[in-house]
Amino acid sequence: MFKQDKLRPAIRQKATATLELSSIRKTRQCTLPEWSPSCWTNMTGQCWSIHVKLLTLLHVTSGYYQRWKNTFVVTDLSQRKTLFSRRTKPTDLLTGDEIKAVLSVNLCKMENTTSDVWSADSLLELMPSNPVRESFENAWIYMNKHYTKFQIATYGSLIVHELVYFAACLPGIIFQFLPFMRKFKIQTNRPENFDGQWKCFKLLMFNHFVIQFPLMCGTYVFTEMFDIPYSWEEMPPWYNLALRVFGCAVIEDTWHYFLHQVLHDKRIYKYIHKVHHHFQSPFGMTAEYAHPAETLILGAGFFIGILLLCNHFIIMWLWVTVRLFETIDVHSGYDIPYLNIFHLIPFYGGSKFHDFHHYNFNGNYSSTFTWWDKIFGTDSQYKEYCAKLQAEEKKKGL
């Protein structure tokens, strides 16, 4: 027992405040003169436990704290008794060997948990659950149970294509009737008209059902030849699918850039690609308004990515969905960057970039990204055009 008069008042106040911590409230509330070796041993052990818990919080998230705390904290009472039984006064501290013994025991326990905690699946558990996963899973299982692979790959793909295509075109159709959306129109002097849209729609129907539908039937042959799975159980995780779809976009953009330049060759331009440039100010539906030969030539880039990266049938539907939304966006004729999630993608061209291609007929040959045009300098006229517009805006501001 040590005497109260030997402690300075500041130390005495700090010790009393320490005893009032919520984590030590379970211990016996004792005043300073009542401290005993057993009381000090109990409190020191709990303070050590709290200290190790705080270290744990620096390394793991709150979601994994409950999983790891038993690994780091000394919970063996016999071990704690051995370590702290000799603590008879505040000036006694744990020796280096004793601290090393405690950490060695707990680090050994931790060896079997670190690999699991930092694995991809464990980290994904921290993300919020997908609210539509269960419904989508049930729908996918129902589809596989009630329809054949041929029906899914052919008629199913046609339905997905048509629904996605015209759903993506719908906002642009509505925008032309909203006066406040005119400020987002890129070529304000060339508004849409019904005759042009009807002409575009008729050629679209021909291309969709006469050209593209037979190609969709060919996807069934591809899935059977390469044993591409359809089942829910064999579906890869979402991040695997996302990377493969991104890879398809890079492959298609590369194919589109070089073949698009070939189609602009003066010797063949008027026979094939001129059809697509009929509308100098594009709108959403003009995305697939093209000569049937161009549909086959440029459309081949879509299937190259599928041939190289497809490991489940759903990639075909995901890729066609992303590709349709992207191509309709760049042909929309409207630039709304703050509401367009595609602009979050680095090097994404967007509607202004491709709209200039229809306005100028040359340059900006890429379909999605801008890097090929930057590398080969085919965006030089677009840069000059943007610089000219900025200069005009500055003059108006003055």
Describe, in plain words, how this protein is organized in 3D:
This protein is mainly alpha-helical. The protein folds into two domains: 13-124, no CATH class; 133-397, no CATH class. 63% of the residues lie in helices and 0% in strands. The protein has helices spanning 9-19, 37-57, 62-72, 77-84, 96-117, 120-124, 133-146, 149-175, 194-225, 238-263, 266-269, 292-309, 314-330, 350-360, 371-376, 380-397. The radius of gyration is 34 Å and the shape is globular. It starts with 8 loop residues before the first helix and ends with a helix. 22% of the residues are buried. The model is unreliable at 1-8, 17-44 and 50-93 (pLDDT under 50).
Provide the fold topology.
Blueprint (H helix, E strand, L loop, with lengths): L8 H11 L17 H21 L4 H11 L4 H8 L11 H22 L2 H5 L8 H14 L2 H27 L18 H32 L12 H26 L2 H4 L22 H18 L4 H17 L19 H11 L10 H6 L3 H18 L1
Organism: Plakobranchus ocellatus
Protein name: Methylsterol monooxygenase 1
Pfam family, one: FA_hydroxylase
